[in-house]
Amino acid sequence: MNTDIDRERGVLSPADRAYLLGDREMSHEQSKRNAEARIRRRIHASTVDFDLLLHTLPEKDRKQVFERTTTDAAFLDGLRAMVAFVYLGTERYGVDFEEILTPAVRSSEEYLAATDRDETVSVDVTFDVETTVESSLEGITERLDAGDPVTPRELFSIVMQGTYDATRHDRIRVVSVDGDDSGPSLERLATYLDGDLERVSDGIAVIRLSE
Description:
Strand order of the largest sheet: 1-3-2
Strand content: 5-15%
Structural class: mainly alpha
């Protein structure tokens, strides 16, 4: 998660970022509600703007925006977060994500075929998600309380769930599973928890938390 508040204004202003990160206190409950409503309106307005951007932004400008995916890790992380934000919002609140993904990919492939190869194509989009329960959140918190190690994915799940205060511990031991390095970044987890990351070995790390 990018916690740089003073970046150039995007969907969020620096003040919005400070509020969401807990670095800006609101003196009145109404001020808090106003800030949240303002952020919701900006998200909605910015999302609608993408319809305009898709159809009117010149190719040279789109190229300059996306060329940075090979050099700008924060931008790439932002793209992943953008897709995750849409996935969570649609799946949880009434729209199947596939209804968003399928027509978007199909029309994009048709456009690429026509403009890049002078072809018409038939596009078949397959989207499939399988989830396997690995451990309960209650079991993870019990292991944290006992000082036992957890995986990066398990720690990420606890942090995102939001009801358990992982910072109550002086340190958290984290272990990789079978060399799996596809999970959440330990560096980002440590930063989010305001801790320091110490790599003990290839498969073991410790997040030392501030007092």
